[in-house]
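sry for the spam today, last one i promise. struct tokens for design, 90 residues
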């Protein structure tokens, strides 16, 4: 397994820069530390749609993500909250 390009992380925005209504707020929360909940040992695996390999991740509950997305004019009830922990290539 390889470390993700952005280290272990929770994505708040992914490929949505062009649709964010409040782009002036981009990076307002950059580097902000937030609390989140997760279930230990609940590792999920998804096939990479863009390259050979798999992503490994854990579901998380993080209301702050919804608050930031709403502030940016993005869908706030984003159901894809997860902590990316690694990936494989082949």
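last one done:
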């Amino acid at each position: 397994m390889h470390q993700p390009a952005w280290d272990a992380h929770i994505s708040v925005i992914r490929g949505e820069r062009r649709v964010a209504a409040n782009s002036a707020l981009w990076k307002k929360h950059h580097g902000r530390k937030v609390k989140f909940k997760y279930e230990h040992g609940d590792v999920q695996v998804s096939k990479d749609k863009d390259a050979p390999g798999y992503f490994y991740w854990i579901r998380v509950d993080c209301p702050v993500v919804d608050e930031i997305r709403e502030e940016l004019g993005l869908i706030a009830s984003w159901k894809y909250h997860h902590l990316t922990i690694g990936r494989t290539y082949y």
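The mean pLDDT is 83. ok im logging off now
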